[in-house]
Design brief:
- InterPro entries: LysM, LysM_dom_sf.
- This is LysM peptidoglycan-binding domain-containing protein.
- It comes from Calorimonas adulescens.
- It is built from 8 helices and 7 strands, in the order βααβααββααββααβ.
- It has 275 residues and is α+β, with helices and mostly antiparallel strands.
- It has 2 domains: 99 residues, LysM domain (Membrane-bound Lytic Murein Transglycosylase D, Chain A), CATH 3.10.350; 99 residues, LysM domain (Membrane-bound Lytic Murein Transglycosylase D, Chain A).
- The longest helix is centred in the first third of the chain and has 8 residues.
- The chain is globular, with a radius of gyration of 22 Å.
- The two termini are 23 Å apart.
């Protein structure tokens, strides 16, 4: 592991939490490095030193930022920010990039396979595990089809009818100043790629204030709860195994202490973003 320090200028809407997520860094490390007394008080234009621990990686033919991020088990946005990559994030073979939070490679130069097993079929928004030992591009999931398969006989099909999303598939969120897809994905326990696909967003770095986004949620995890007398966000979050911050963000609650009976809340069950 090596350590690097990167200078970052705080932008409107930034928090130490969102900045730490951008760089796959620790909030505590940023606080200590910059002698911040109150972590809640940072302001636009403030210069921060971001300490990063990670490894160096030499790009191979066929690599993409997303592939490398999956291989090391780190957010691909962190690689983009740590290496100051510019959209569309093209990287070239034999160049060296820094992987924040990455672990040392094995003898074959490939980091250990992440222990997390993705369910099959995958929940909406979660990628399949990266294929190890295969040349790029990876074979399709389930293997290649048998050759020389006869073409199916075309049959008349009824005209397609637009289908409505199944209940619990997504909820709608209105973009606020300072929002990024990365921060929203972390708070709502989904991925940047899933939100981008659900909203036909070509450049994940470009979203507009006031834009209405469909936030995909894994099947069975979306709940609507009506506040009852005596309720608090703390108790509701504990009941549904989520966080106050996730509920407040999903429901545009400026002051988590102020909810009222009859208020209808969007809740993502089991969503507990890392602190």
């Amino acid at each position: 592991m090596i350590t690097r320090r990167i200078t970052y200028i705080v932008r409107p809407g930034d928090t130490l939490f969102s900045i730490s997520r951008m760089f796959n860094a620790s909030v505590d490390d940023i606080v200590r490095e910059n002698n911040i007394i109150n972590p809640a008080l940072i302001y636009p234009g403030m210069q921060l030193v971001i300490p990063l621990r990670g490894v160096l990686y030499t790009v191979r033919p066929g690599d993409t930022v997303y592939d490398i991020a999956m291989r090391f088990g780190v957010p691909y946005e962190a690689i983009i920010y740590a290496n100051n990559l510019v959209y569309p994030y093209v990287i070239y073979p034999n160049t060296t990039i820094f992987i924040p939070g990455g672990r040392e490679s094995g003898t074959d130069g490939i980091p250990p396979r992440p222990s997390t097993q993705y369910p099959f079929p995958p929940y909406y928004g979660y990628p399949y595990p990266p294929c190890y030992g295969y040349p790029m591009p990876c074979p399709p999931f389930g293997g290649y089809p048998f050759p020389q398969q006869p073409a199916p006989i075309p049959t008349p099909t009824p005209p397609s009818v637009p289908t409505m999303p199944e209940p619990g598939e997504y909820f709608t969120y209105t973009v606020k100043p300072g929002d990024t897809l990365y921060e929203l994905a972390m708070l709502f326990c989904t991925t940047v790629d899933a939100i981008a696909r659900a909203n036909n967003i070509k450049d994940p770095n470009k979203i507009d204030v006031g834009q209405r986004l469909r936030i995909p949620v894994s099947e069975g995890r979306l709940r609507y709860y009506t506040v009852r007398p005596g309720d608090s966000l703390y108790e509701i979050a504990k009941r549904y195994n989520t966080t106050i911050e996730s509920i407040a963000k999903a429901n545009d609650i400026a002051d988590p202490a102020k909810i009222y009976p009859g208020q209808r809340l969007v809740i993502i069950v089991g969503c507990k973003p890392d602190p």
